Amino acid sequence: MTSHAPRLSKLLLAAALSAALFVPGRAAVHAAEAPAVAVPVAIPVSSAVPAASREISASEYAAFLQDKFGLSLAANATKGDFLVALAKSLRLEPTADAVEFKDLPSSSPYYSAAKALYQQGVLTSDTVNASERLGAANAIQIALKAADLEELAYTYPEAKAAQALAKLPLRKAAASLGLKATQELAAAVDTGLVPAAYYEELKPGAKASVDLANVLIGKTLVFKGQFKHYIGYVSDSDIYTKLTDAYNSNVIIKSEELQKVVDAALEQNLVTGYNLKDSRYDPNFVESLSLVYGHSDLTHTLQLIGLLRSEGIDAKVQFEPKTSAFVYLKEWGDPGVSEQYEVKQIANGNYIEYAKEYDIAFEFANAADKDRFNDIVLAYAKKNKEHQAGLIAGSWWQPLYYSLTELPEYKLITNNKIEAGRYYAQSFSLKEQSQAVIDGFKKVDPSVVVEHYDFWADVPFYNYLNGESL
Predict the structure, then answer these.
(1) Which of 157, 188, 302, 313 is the most buried (most CB within 10 A)?
(2) What is the rounded distance in angstroms from the CA atom of residue 229 to the CA atom of residue 283?
(3) Where are the domains of the chain?
């Protein structure tokens, strides 16, 4: 490709430019202050459940259910309580088709959940027993069907089911359960729907503990792909390989429906940049424990993980592919060709460039580690002068990281977001400039729905949105 010095300066700021709304002329002024770092690239990844050696605790599942759905099961939860929590966490709503239960009137607070689960084939009897204490074996049977594992269960010959149940205290009572019940319990054991730590709870006639109930709902969400999404932990020995593989597999994200709006807004100078992301990679982390860090360079990412390890911090790690779009000015010269970006020329001779980037999401073990992240980045990954020593590779003048919950020493900014299917376009702005972004998108398409919400970003990025250099 053709090399141009202005292009290099511009590329170094791609992540920031595409994330935010700027006043006219700011991009050119700020580009001159760009650090000499590697050309931005991005890292896409697929989500993964944690390895068996990292079995998720009941308390983590409980925290997730509370954070995402406001659910908190009591120690003496009834079967109806469990059904309500399961249906709500799976976002199941009943259809208008009539369902009648022998022991559950439509006026019951448990009826809607029971109906939805019955219509999904999770409940198969017209007798619910909603007011009874939740039985351990029955809870497992319900969860197995909700997790879509019943066909697997019914492949079990009697001998294979007995072999799995030999691990459980109720093995001697297995004959009284019937073949289907033993198949369901056996498959729950073999698939890990019931972790080994809960085997001892499975005694004949035993009631489910609140921990087992939370684990079964959480495990169901895992099987359905509706729990957290992450490729591993900071402390994993293979996390660097996973990051490298993710980096090398990235592609430009495209959404014709969204880009009709946001590209037109770029072309008309209504905004100066946006990001495209795919919601399938959203980490779904607990908000109070998580934050998102945006960057573009593999070496920086690997060193950041090493930095966190050196500081004694562990966290779940998820990579979210991101494509950043911004205007490439024709006076910068031929944009050339690269695997890391694509360009499209527009009517005035300028280009829209689409660059591969990424967000890395962390969920920390505790709030204190999340709070420490800011100090660590400012000390070792925030550039304050040219040729600054003591920083990890590719450190930026204005690093970008943010939290959906308030943190000390962070500043409030706004995300302006448009969705189309699984894709979404977003542009960050100062809170007071959010309406200008919304108006810009709506000028292009008055029917477009722009979601906007406030969140907390690091001070250097906030200062950058204000036109400051550091």
Answers:
(1) 188
(2) 5
(3) 5-48+229-465, 53-223
